[in-house]
């Protein structure tokens, strides 16, 4: 899904029944415009032309709205494009694994520069919404595990517990995709550093 | 060096010539007591019973004082105990590498809990004092490289560029020692997660 599509949805009005997607679209717009600290549920209700009481029936608090907006973003803008990489035909498992990691790393780096409001919200939510983030991370780890399984089946990778190996690979590359390291991604050396970690991982699994 | 020794040095007075160590002792005490935001150079000068002009002749700003205090702490409380691990006699290189990593990780985890003021200052300085932190990290990477060299010489590890491999190992374990991840160290799963990353690293180098 194109990020521009998500971020420029037209303002919805109270002529339509209020769906979760409509609330999240409005919340995302308002959170982007004013930032998480200055946004109130009342602001979001105004954009939707509903009372804040109506909004509270769908989301219990501003933080649950913020979490739901981040969850949708992680799903559409991070997990779905990576799912496509796992499902691609052709190429070796190590090529696919490298492409998967580069897709994740490039997406994070690009969003941190080009969509700083959403990225900062995501970085903040990462510290608080442990359960939602764990679910997202586990989904990504299962994607890596499927690539590992492909490599074990083709004889390219050593046999082993694919989910455990996948988790180790995800954690060992944290420096390049965990939002707490975003500042370090600006350093010139970061691509060379990824290369050295990638070589270490590949010697470990091949 | 015992941490308690560093943190409870007696208040120095102007009867003695002002040394860098005396300034750092006083700065560390005041920074601990009031926190980096509320501490001023004047507060530190008061403890030392000197004018703030005298202090500015040694350190140009509060941030350079804060950086110097952190640098000393990193040297004494992190790098030196690790140096001792590298120099230890006996045991295999993989045992020594594991002990080195565990010593680093345990030190960071212990300080984050038992010395939160210094740890928070260090986490903040990490984002700003890039050059000082890079020097510290490079020192740690050279320590790992010496262990890798020991392992290559004994035939325990594959041949390879030890500094590059050492850097990859340091980065791949960031999740367990980089201060940006301190909150995640409280999770129950963190030891199991380290074990999976350690196994991946060891398959890569052994």
From TrEMBL, chains A, B:
Which residue ranges carry the DNA-binding annotation? Answer: 40-59
Q: Domain HTH tetR-type: where?
A: 17-77
A Pfam family annotated for this UniProt entry = TetR_N
Q: Which InterPro entries match?
A: DNA-bd_HTH_TetR-type_CS (IPR023772), Homeodomain-like_sf (IPR009057), HTH-type_TetR-like_transc_reg (IPR050109), HTH_TetR (IPR001647), Tet_transcr_reg_TetR-rel_C_sf (IPR036271), TetR_C_27 (IPR041478)
Q: Which UniProt keywords apply?
A: DNA-binding, Transcription, Transcription regulation
Keyword Transferase assigned = no
**Entries under Gene3D superfamilies matching the protein:** Tetracycline Repressor, domain 2
The record's annotation in SUPFAM superfamilies points to:
Homeodomain-like, Tetracyclin repressor-like, C-terminal domain
Q: What is this protein called?
A: TetR family transcriptional regulator
